[in-house]
Write a structure and sequence with these properties.
The protein is an alpha+beta fold. Helices cover 28% and strands 24% of the residues. It contains 8 helices and 20 strands. The strands form 6 sheets. Strands 1-2-6-3-7-19 form a 6-stranded mixed sheet. A 4-stranded antiparallel sheet has the order 13-15-9-16. Strands 4-5-20 form a 3-stranded antiparallel sheet.
């Protein structure tokens, strides 16, 4: 096969995936499509739930292993789509459809790259993994399949980065806060208002700035994104619930930030998880050095990906733009898929 044929197959597969709804935790049909395509390509694959992977036919435990990873799930389509999100349509250089950019382009490009790498001598093993539940950081996604993979030395995650390497990304911690009062009749000024009890904490959370600033990721940031309280106008509320979205850089551990917030607020705080840490790869790593040799510019990404669950070095590198993700009328450019396949091969071939 020549280069154009691989690109055409990538586009055809992406069209089939767009036409197969794969919202997080409901990816089975899309996983079936991908398995069928890998059968057509003559690849021996394995599957755990809706995660599918394949490895180099000549896999050798003595060689380092590179993981090529992208996710098959999508978010739900937003209400402002002007076209059917599940009907792939090509207009000029653009392929429209839900998941085309995030991250179908990376998913199909990396698969075609894996096929081409199989016919080339290489000092590396390669594992291609299409993972599920990335958009919800689900337990049945990457986390459940990692123990089943060979030892991984480094990973390329095909999220949309404009084919520039994101060598660090922020972590995520979601915290539920609770403030308590005593209910009473509003007309008699009775009780203790839970909203007023929470005000000092909410203002402190708004104004506090973390001291350690990352060169790539900037400061650790937090936002109160949900506030819920009260039942009706004439009842003093006895409970207030709020949610804090915390985005940590590599200079702070989620656990340490949580303890710090507990020490500086009087509300009851409960972290939903500590597992989604900030991740980074050394500037001295051979993969980062190779990216620089090819003229790429490393940067820090504010968005979360499956990298947060990877206990080995990794970077994000994929076609498309992060700004298109989760938006109406999402698209990937065909030229971006072409460029991605070419760039991945230049990066990974000797």
């Amino acid at each position: 096969m020549n280069k154009k044929e691989y690109i055409d197959e990538a586009v055809r597969l992406l069209q089939r995936l767009i036409a197969t709804p794969s919202v997080s935790r409901d990816e089975a049909a899309a996983a079936d499509v991908l398995c069928a395509a890998m059968d057509e390509y003559g690849l021996h694959w394995q599957r755990e739930g809706n995660n599918i992977w394949t490895k180099s036919p000549d896999f050798n435990d003595l060689r380092p292993t590179v993981l090529l990873n992208a996710h098959i799930d999508t978010v739900k389509p937003v209400a402002t789509w002007t076209r059917d999100p599940f009907t792939p349509s090509i207009e000029g250089d653009r392929l429209y459809g839900l998941g085309a950019n995030d991250c179908g382009g990376g998913l199909v490009s990396l698969l075609q790259v894996f096929r081409q790498l199989m016919g080339q001598p290489s000092p590396y093993n390669f594992v291609y993994l299409a993972s599920a539940e990335e958009e919800v950081s689900g337990k049945n996604g990457l986390e459940c399949v990692l123990p089943l993979l060979p030892r991984i030395d480094v990973a390329i995650v095909g999220e949309p980065t404009g084919m520039q390497p994101a060598t660090a990304e922020k972590g995520l911690m979601v915290i539920d806060g609770y403030s308590y009062g005593v209910s009473g009749h509003a007309a008699r000024n009775e009780g203790v208002n839970a909203i007023y009890e929470a005000l000092d904490d909410l203002l402190w959370l708004r104004d506090y700035r973390f001291e350690k600033v990352s060169p790539l990721l900037g400061p650790t940031k937090m936002q109160v994104t949900v506030v819920e309280s009260g039942t009706q106008h004439n009842v003093v509320p006895d409970k207030l619930h709020f949610i804090i979205d915390v985005r940590t850089n590599e200079l702070y551990r989620n656990e340490d930030v949580f303890v710090f917030l507990q020490e500086h607020t009087k509300s009851e705080l409960k972290a939903r998880s500590f597992r989604l840490h900030s991740s980074s790869i050394s500037e001295a790593h051979w993969l980062v050095r190779r990216c620089r040799q090819l003229g790429m510019q490393p940067f820090g990404s504010p968005t979360l990906s499956d990298q947060a669950l990877m206990p080995f070095p990794s970077l994000k590198l994929g076609p498309g733009q992060s700004s298109r993700s989760h938006s109406a009328d999402e698209f990937i450019c065909l030229s971006e898929i072409d460029h991605a396949i070419d760039t991945y091969l230049r990066l990974l071939l000797p």
